[in-house]
């Protein structure tokens, strides 16, 4: 789990130049719960069937979520039925509300099949946040809209039905830690985004394109701030970006998010040129580069967290929490599972009867 420590926001500093700095503190979790249809003995032969069963796993997953009690919870691979019949009613008992969307293919399915499609969910603690607006990005729809007949955009990117989901939240009074009683109350907007990027390593170009397209979720959601009479400059938004990006730290995906740019000839594009399509969606204010304006930093690197995915044949960092580094400061991180504990309990991979899918969490 990732707990994110609250950032001192610029608006608070402006309003309190001669007085105390107001600090909003919250924690955030990012968690791929591994949906039921993917938890098979074929995929995880080292795990007994009873431990892969959803009725067993869901109790442990919910117990872990409740144990950490994050203020913002980002989940991936949540089936529609699991969200509406299990996670939402259970977490409402703990003071949360949430939003959800299944992957794009769900809209073309019968109701009996749609409920088993997995997607992304964002939960937020209602005592600290109110929901202003939610926004869904369907990568395949944007790929089709901007393809201009480009064959590999249509044949490689468009068929993948991954999604991005965003919640534009506003803080309530209880989100502020040291606000004087007579001080003006700040309704700070926070944009929380989550996504589950395509999994196949052979489609590293698709992963990068999806991530670049995802930038549009931030731009469109940022426009909502105009209705709040708040500074709409995207670089000033309090931003938390979470997800299962299925990408290692040296990938184009993480380079683009972390540095704000990626070369147009990056190796992850392979031999395909997406330039004409991407120029319609992205900034190209520097020669031979695609850029974005958000100043982001990753909560984790391999010095802190050697893996977020721990299976028999793969161990590495593919899940991330990014944050607006100019206006937010991490106060704490949830570290990895103890390697000694894994060895003592002979855990060769997750899922495991004594563990669940790894969580990434952070405190701000």
Report what the structure shows.
The structure is a single chain. The chain is α+β, with helices and mostly antiparallel strands and 364 residues long. Helices cover 26% and strands 25% of the residues. Strands 1, 2, 3, 4, 5, 16 and 17 form a 7-stranded mixed sheet that branches. A 6-stranded mixed sheet has the order 6-7-8-9-15-12. A two-stranded antiparallel ribbon has the order 10-11. Helix 8 (204-223) packs parallel to helix 9 (252-259). The protein is globular and about 50 Å long.
Secondary structure: number of strands? 17
Distance between the termini: 13 Å
Number of helices: 11
Looking at the structure, what is the overall shape?
Answer: globular
Average per-residue pLDDT, rounded, comes to: 85
Beta strand %: 25-35%
Task: Point out poorly predicted stretches.
Answer: 1-17
Order of helices and strands: EHEHHEHEHEEHHEEHEHEHEEEEEEHE
Biggest sheet overview: 7 strands, mixed
Q: Could you say which structural class the secondary elements and strand pairing correspond to? A: alpha+beta
Instruction: Work out the radius of gyration.
Output: 20 Å
Considering DSSP H and I runs of 4 or more, what fraction of the residues is helical?
25-40%
Pfam family, one: Exo_endo_phos
InterPro entries: CCR4/nocturin_mRNA_transcr (IPR050410), Endo/exonu/phosph_ase_sf (IPR036691), Endo/exonuclease/phosphatase (IPR005135)
Protein name: Endonuclease/exonuclease/phosphatase domain-containing protein
Domain Endonuclease/exonuclease/phosphatase: 30-329
